Amino acid sequence: MLTRAALIECLATPSTPNCRSIAEMLNCFMNFRVTIEPDEDGIYVAECPALPGCASQGRTRDEALKNIRTAIKGCLRSLGKHTDPGSGHTEEKIIEIVAV
């Protein structure tokens, strides 16, 4: 599974070999969980929890879903352009501990 930090790093530095192949895969398919719920005015609000701040809305669920797809693409493009992989991103490692 591609972590958010790895995705951001690859979008920011797509010239490295691993990131190039990941970028090629990303051009094919990526799945994101989205939430869609009506607000108090009956407008449907869609959010993508994996991309903080990535949200959209629509008059219907279908319109909100269409709009969040566009918003996710925009968020990913923005991350690729404006994220410095060397500053402040979360690093994820798997470590092995020997039980005593």
Give an overview in words.
There is one protein chain. This protein is of the alpha+beta class and 100 residues long. The protein has a single domain (4-82), classed as 2-Layer Sandwich (Double Stranded RNA Binding Domain), CATH 3.30.160. 41% of the residues lie in helices and 12% in strands. It has 3 helices and 3 strands.
Descriptive keywords:
single chain, 100 residues, alpha+beta, Double Stranded RNA Binding Domain, three-stranded antiparallel sheet
First-to-last CA distance: 31 Å
- Write down the overall mean pLDDT: 77
Largest sheet: 3 strands, antiparallel
Instruction: Tally the beta strands.
Output: 3
Number of helices: 3
CATH overall fold name: Double Stranded RNA Binding Domain
Provide the β-strand percentage band. 5-15%
What is the C-level CATH assignment?
Alpha Beta
Q: What string, H for helix and E for strand, traces the elements in order?
A: HHEEEH
Q: How many discrete structural domains?
A: 1
Low-confidence stretches: none
Proportion in helices: 40-55%
Radius of gyration: 17 Å
Annotated CATH architecture: 2-Layer Sandwich
Strand order of the largest sheet: 1-2-3
Which of globular, elongated, flat, extended, rod-shaped describes the shape?
Answer: elongated
Structural class: alpha+beta
